[in-house]
Amino acid sequence: MRSRVGAVAAMCLLLVAASTSCSSGNQVGSPGPTRSVTLWNPSAGRPSPSTAADGPFDVDAAMLRIKRLGYTADDEPSVLKALRGPFRALHGHCTGSVDGHCVSVFFFQGNDYVGYDNPGVTESTIVKQDGTTVTISYPVFTTSDPLCCPSGGKREIRAAFKGGKVAFTPPLPDNPNGPGT
After folding, report:
1. pLDDT tens digits for 61-102?
2. Which residues contact 143 (CB under 8 A, 6 or more apart)?
3. How far, in Å, CA of 156 to CA of 154, rounded?
4. pTM of the entire structure?
5. Euclidean distance between the first and the last CA atom of the chain, given in angstroms as a whole number
6. pLDDT of 156-167, one tens digit each?
7. Is the dihedral of CA 144, 145, 147, 153 positive or negative?
8. Whole-angstrom Cα distance, residue 180 to residue 57?
């Protein structure tokens, strides 16, 4: 009898451990645009009812998602709550960065995390967003520019959620801060 109870208890522990590790998703390392993962929906990738046009934006969950990717949001929660949706962008910097030259833009469709712009971006600014399109500006550094002083002008890229993913116009180069296109 004891061995049967012990076996049942062990099986329950294995099931709990398996379900916990499987539902956690990709929450560490570089932000990844390859799959849509949310903090509150273990069936990641499928649109949830929360993606209504101007439904409430769960800013706390979005900030936690960014934090788990190693970034800190640049805006206060009150500013982020005012963003129109369903397509929203949050600008963040690498947590612990001392020079501020490690940034990324994180995209959410409704409350679902759907991707980011590019890892290794030195500088960027969200110029505007209207709930369907986000315009991002990247200063362009020439090969001889110090980190303080980009001299290559600016590159503006628009992002929108199309066909279940973030689409960039013009296409986002590997290094949006670099001189080549």
Report:
1. 999 999 999 999 999 999 999 999 999 999 999 998 877 788
2. 179
3. 6
4. 0.70
5. 71
6. 999 999 999 999
7. negative
8. 37
